[in-house]
What we know:
This protein is an all-alpha fold. It is built from 13 helices and no strands. The protein has helices at about 1-15, 15-35, 40-50, 55-65, 70-80, 85-95, 100-110, 115-120, 130-155, 160-165, 170-180, 185-205, 210-225.
Amino acid sequence: MQQATREQFFRGLKAGVPVMFGFIPVAIAYALSARQGAGFSALETILMSLMVYAGASQMMAVGMLSTGSAMGPIVLATFLLNLRHFIMSTYVMRELPEKTRLPQRLLSAFCVTDEGFAVFSAQKDENRTMPFFAGLAVITYLSWVGGTAIGAFASGLIPQTLLNSFNIALYAMFIALLAPGLPGKPKLCLLVLFTAALSALLGRLMPASWALILSTLAGAAVGAVFTGESAPEEENLP
Length: 238
């Protein structure tokens, strides 16, 4: 049993390597924004990644702080931006074995990210275990915090042109994780296109954070109806 647990854990670590390479540059970009834009100390910058662990929300928070926003609006905006995590965490909790204890589930919910969710949900049934998710969570969490530390202490040393390139790394990585699961799944392809188009449309009418939230919720609602468990061949959606 212990051997199987270790194997599952290391499988999770291995599966998280692509996410690690995406997280580190984006975490550096966040740290530089926090240090240079919001005036955070190195310790404050790292603590935010340790306790919040939500890249988009951290970016938005430091951006709002740099413009002088009050704490109340920042907390509300962060909550709204992270609403999608309710959907992703619910899915992950459902897929974990029933014997998984509550403390493990709570810690797992904290560690769910967009990219980790994409990797975990694309796994075969034998890999949807607590040790596998733990390995995935460890490598992604440490890479985010580690990247933050690099950026926090290297503030002022990284050229702005390089910083600008960091900002697209996470989006490129997420597309790379999602794309392999699309061939042969027309409903899922249509769902992805629908969500992306809706997000682009709403982005012209409202702030990007609201557009992301509403398009994600709409996509999830449509997906629940048209790509549900009635289609066995599409059970393992990425």
